[in-house]
Request: fold
Amino acid sequence: MSHHIRRAIRILNMLGTGHALTTSEIAARVTKLEDAKEVSLRQIQRDLRTIGEAGVPLVESREGSSIRWSLPSGARFLQPLSVNPSELLSLHILKGALASFRDTQIQRDVDRLASKLDKIAPGTVFMDEDLVSEVSPGRYATAVSDSALNDIVQAIVDPHWDRVTYRGVNATRAKTFVVSFCRLVNHAGRLYVAAWHPNHKNYITLAADRIDHVERASDITDTLHVFNERKYRSGRFGVYDGEMSNIKLRVDKDAASFFTSRIWHPTQEFKELRNGDVEMTLLAPLSPELISWIVSWADVLTIVTPKKLKTACREKVKSLI
Reply:
């Protein structure tokens, strides 16, 4: 790249921040960035003339005996998007976390944007699968309908009541009920939506791909619920709710550091025992996901209480074998 072109790009970067600079100020700043000799005022004047001839709308404003150069606010898009190493990693994480939006209108839009972002953060850092999923088989193959997803997003951004037609996993037919959509939840490679159910006066979690239809419930005039994320998370283990219970587990000392370094549930508490084991307590629902989680850690976890949880886990293992 020639010195002339490099200086012109640097001048555009400076003016693209919204500052109005004199020729002397531009020359001083460019000189600091140049590896070669000092940049003269004449060179900067020639660079500014070239930039103007190229169609860039430079603005001249007189301040005393000096002339300041700037770009109109609408032209600040000329400033290149730059990212530091931390922002670059975040960008790759964001790209990897978008897998839940496959086969939706949002994913198509994201694909178009990603092709532009690849010029800033080229390459693929994470696997093509959902970033937040475990490396295991069992990805959900169903897709969320474009119309339902658009309606859900609109309802979250502009809160209101909606009538939703939903196909439950074990239901023989779809049901229609009123909810207020609160947040999208990306869980284990599947897209869910947290919603407030006014009749139950509690949160429910709906699999987005099982929502058949969404229609604004203009006839409902009840006061809208204000989403409380901690309340939502505390009443679940993962995305599943159930009967709330005081749970006490004993973690083997060999796995103590692994368990205590992670947040499994908002209510979790740990207490180190004399032999090096750790006692883990939490107030959580006895949901299928909790039971499956405990069974998966059977080699390092022991259930202390409640008895109902012991029975549920025993029945699950018995059924398996």
About this structure: Residues 146-227 form a domain with the SH3 type barrels. fold (CATH 2.30.30). The two ends are 69 Å apart (CA to CA). The chain has a mean pLDDT of 83. Residues 307-320 form the longest helix (14 residues).
